[in-house]
Amino acid sequence: MTNDSALLIVDVQNDFCPGGALGVTEGDLVVPVLNRYIELFTTQGLPVFATRDWHPAMTSHFKAFGGVWPVHCVQGSTGAAFHPDLKLPPHAVIISKGMDPSRDDYSALHGIAPDGTPLPDLLRQHGVRKVYVGGLATDYCVKESVLEGIARGFTMVYLADACRGVNLQPEDTEKAEAEMARAGAGTASLVELAAKG
Q1: Which of 9, 18, 128, 196 could be disulfide-bonded to 50 (CB atoms 3.0-4.6 Å)?
Q2: Is 148 within 8 Å of 107 (Cβ atoms)?
Q3: d(Cα 63, Cα 36) in Å, to the nearest integer?
Q4: pLDDT tens, 129-187?
């Protein structure tokens, strides 16, 4: 990790964890790992961003309105809250996405900060060039965030030990990882970063 690095935590919300409306198998297992990453980045004074799906009750993202997904992460709902064991630091910037009822917005880079600043602009304002990405789910929002980050000129690093996939098809996570690697994403693990830290 260098001083132009940031941690991006993607959608670790109740609805994406086991028992939620769109629960990812073992999705809650990313939480203790991400907490360690948070400690690592915070200790080094590096920024932490956490995205959340923040859907209106009516959106084309949901099955009832033409989409493919069950209702999940509706603004202000318990399901939209971050997992209760996720230890976001006070300086973490919350990024909301999926608020436009006509768009899916899988990528974290479509999200905005509370003051309306788009995430890519915010990263640049913080001098961030390298983004380490963990969260849910590997084969959707994590993958799309990594691919868009690369397309926008950031160095993106996929944290496999802090991600889990939906796997509508059994190989979806592996395919997503291969696609990210082909696009130029790096990979890292907690053991590697802690050793360098």
Answers
A1: 9
A2: yes
A3: 36
A4: 999 999 999 999 999 999 999 999 999 999 999 999 998 899 999 999 999 999 999 99
**Is 73 in the active site?**
no
Q: What is the mean pLDDT of residues 8-15?
A: 97
* Active-site annotation holder among 15, 73, 97, 105: 97
Specify which residues 69 forms β-bridges with.
Answer: 62
**Is position 63 annotated as part of the catalytic site?**
no
Question: Known catalytic residue: 11?
Answer: yes
* Statement: residue 69 has pLDDT above 90: no
pTM for this one? Answer: 0.95
Instruction: State how beta strands 5-10 and 130-136 pair.
Output: parallel
Catalytic option among 28, 73, 105, 141: 141
CA 165 to chain centre: 12
